[in-house]
């Protein structure tokens, strides 16, 4: 097990807004910063900071589309993790 990766993932999941961003991306497949700002009613710097932490943990990635970046979950493992969290919370 890679301790550094584990630390980055647990750090990324240690914030309710970041978890909500992950669930939003799972439900909507992708999003830009503006949509996330509007949905969560928070500032661009705040959303960008949280997205950077999620990206550093390899939970999300982005692709440039013209002037903006489009964010989505990194892979199916992230969706599986979110499903497991949801099941655990609801039990």
From TrEMBL:
Domain called HTH arsR-type: residue spans: 1-91
TM helices/strands, residue ranges: none
PROSITE patterns listed in its UniProt record: HTH_ARSR_2 (PS50987)
GO molecular function: DNA binding; DNA-binding transcription factor activity
Keywords from the UniProt entry: DNA-binding, Transcription, Transcription regulation
Statement: the UniProt record of this protein carries the keyword Transcription regulation: yes
Lineage top rank: taxon: Bacteria
InterPro entries: ArsR-like_HTH, HTH_ArsR_DNA-bd_dom, HTH_MetalResp_TranReg, WH-like_DNA-bd_sf, WH_DNA-bd_sf
NCBIfam families xrefs: HTH_metalloreg
Protein name: Transcriptional regulator
Biological source species: Apilactobacillus kunkeei
Lineage: Bacteria, Bacillati, Bacillota, Bacilli, Lactobacillales
